[in-house]
Amino acid sequence: MLCGPKDSEQQLISQCSVCGRYTDLVELPGSNEKYCLPCSADVATSILLTTEIDAATLAGRETRNLVAEFAQLSARILERSQSA
Predict the structure, then answer these.
(1) Residue 79: helix, strand or coil by DSSP?
(2) Based on C-alpha coordinates, what's the Rg of the chain?
């Protein structure tokens, strides 16, 4: 079953690439991996934060808050993957 923009998400009952749960999965655009909903949200957020950190660094802006948020998010993803 396809959801969202054409070929952007595909729901399948399979194993999440992060946490290993068997559930409906989505595929993020530009990624070959498939994730459950909570993990896909965290992975998408990490991609956006990385982009924002890079842009802020190139523009000479402060990145401390973005880096702290990224660290918290990374810890949550790591915890989820280790609990599987």
Answers:
(1) helix
(2) 15
Q: Beta strand 9-10 with 22-27: parallel, antiparallel or unpaired?
A: unpaired
The residue extents of the domains of the chain are 2-82
Three-state secondary structure call for residue 16: coil
Instruction: Give burial (CB, 10 Å; 0-12/13-18/19+) of 65.
Output: exposed
Could you give the 3-state DSSP secondary structure of residue 34?
strand
Q: Which residue's structure tokens are 């409906």?
A: 24
3-class SS of residue 20: coil
Query: Tens digit of pLDDT for each residue in 6-58?
Result: 554 455 579 999 999 999 999 999 889 999 999 999 999 999 999 999 999 99
